[in-house]
């Protein structure tokens, strides 16, 4: 048969199923969906994808150009990501944690700048789209691997059992790498985190809040977000969240262009700031649900 499942494609390409889904969501690897919503792939489309990646690799420099003005840790993270070395990235995070560096600091100070440098390299034509995809997929796979390894002991009472958190990118937003970092940090801080990911319609999310409200909703938007659509979506979500007592936090360059924010929405500029804002005020008041 010339129709493959997500798992079959992942095994064929030697990557995780999450990576295959990410490529298909980005339109890089074509797929179609069954009536039940499952992704299916045609062999000819997988072969075409491989051919495109080989062409990109031939056009790209044999070795990625060296990064400038990065710290030793940022350079190491960048090199591991470009090599698609998921094991190395997991080890990198584990090593930093053993040194006492928090997850929010690792993402803010090391992995974030490394990925920004890679993105800038792609924009300037110094790196190929294939290299950028490999790096992003490696970070996503690393986050999935690290999550079960998070320490569950030694938390203070203020961070233990903080309830449920949802993480989403609204509307047409496809860039959810930063959101996944947020989700991992929230998990480390004691939340039961559910990742909705990219392209979540605001209306659907509002209905989800009404039916099963979480304690916290985290939203992320990239600089490419449509400003008017994002503003309208945020207003809808803020209203739905206020009705059920869900706290809303937002981050990413896309939200920097929106002002003022609804009163129940807090914007953060870094993950370290996010952790400080979430917990410096102590426990949140009990929600009032009508």
Written description of the protein model:
The protein is α/β, with parallel strands linked by helices and about 290 residues long. The protein has three domains: about 5-60, Multidrug-efflux Transporter Regulator, Chain: A, Domain 2 (Orthogonal Bundle), CATH 1.10.1660; about 70-150, Methyltransferase, Methionine Synthase (B12-binding Domains), Chain A, domain 1 (Orthogonal Bundle), CATH 1.10.1240; about 155-280, Rossmann fold, CATH 3.40.50.280. About 50% of the residues lie in helices and about 15% in strands. It contains eleven helices and eight strands. The strands form two sheets. The chain has a five-stranded parallel sheet, sandwiched between helices. Strands 1-3-2 form a three-stranded antiparallel sheet. Strand 2 (about 30-35) and strand 3 form a beta hairpin. Helix 7 (about 130-145) packs parallel to helix 8 (about 175-190).
What is the strand and helix layout of this fold?
Blueprint: E1 3-5, H1 6-13, H2 17-25, E2 32-33, E3 39-42, H3 43-59, H4 72-82, H5 86-98, H6 103-123, H7 129-146, E4 163-170, H8 177-188, E5 191-200, H9 202-211, E6 216-220, H10 227-244, E7 247-251, E8 265-268, H11 271-279
Parallel strand pairs: 4-5, 4-6, 6-7, 7-8
Antiparallel strand pairs: 1-3, 2-3
């Amino acid at each position: 048969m010339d129709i493959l499942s997500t798992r079959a494609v992942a095994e064929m390409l030697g990557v995780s199923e999450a990576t295959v889904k990410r490529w298909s969501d980005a339109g890089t690897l074509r797929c179609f969906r069954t009536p039940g919503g499952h992704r299916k792939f045609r062999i000819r489309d997988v072969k075409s994808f491989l051919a495109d990646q080989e062409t990109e690799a031939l056009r790209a420099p044999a070795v990625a150009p060296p990064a400038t003005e990065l710290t030793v840790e940022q350079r190491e993270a960048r090199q591991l990501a470009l090599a698609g070395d998921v094991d190395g990235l997991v080890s990198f995070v584990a090593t930093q944690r053993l040194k006492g560096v928090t997850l929010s600091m690792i993402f803010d100070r090391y992995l974030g700048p490394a990925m920004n440098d890679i993105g800038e390299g792609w924009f300037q034509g110094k790196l190929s789209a294939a290299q950028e995809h490999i790096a992003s997929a490696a970070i996503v796979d690393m986050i999935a691997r690290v999550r079960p390894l998070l320490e569950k002991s030694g938390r203070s009472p203020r961070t233990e059992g903080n309830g449920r958190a949802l993480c989403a990118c609204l509307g047409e937003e496809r860039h959810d790498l930063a959101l996944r970092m947020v989700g991992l940090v929230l998990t480390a801080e004691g939340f039961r985190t559910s990742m909705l990911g990219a392209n979540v319609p605001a209306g659907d999310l509002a209905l989800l809040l009404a039916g099963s409200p979480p304690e916290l909703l985290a939203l992320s938007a990239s600089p490419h977000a449509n400003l008017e659509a994002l503003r309208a979506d945020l207003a809808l979500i803020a209203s739905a969240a206020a009705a059920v007592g869900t706290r809303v936090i937002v981050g990413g360059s896309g939200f920097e262009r929106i002002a003022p924010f609804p009163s129940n929405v807090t914007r953060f500029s870094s993950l370290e700031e996010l952790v400080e804002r979430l917990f410096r005020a102590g426990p949140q008041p009990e929600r009032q649900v009508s």
